[in-house]
Amino acid sequence: MMNIYSVIKKPLFTEKGAALKEAGNKVLVEVGLDANKIEIKKAIEEIFKVKVDKVATIKVHSKKKRWGKSIGRSPERKKALVTLKAGQKLDFIEGA
Fold it and tell me: 7: burial class by Cβ within 10 Å (0-12, 13-18, 19+)?
């Protein structure tokens, strides 16, 4: 069992995420690479005091990057699309 604060890393603020939030009551967050759907659901419910309907995860693989002569890789990350139950609301930035 992971610490709930190591499961949820940060919220993701993108145009697509904002559209999902308005249309389907969904929230996009970045999570730890080894976090599973059950841990993500428990962490969101415990931290933000909301009820979660379902969780979908997306693993973003690293890409090759080039800086002059050097070749490296971008970091690998994992995103979670959290669907909240009807009537629940989660606002990361209120009034902004």
Answer: buried
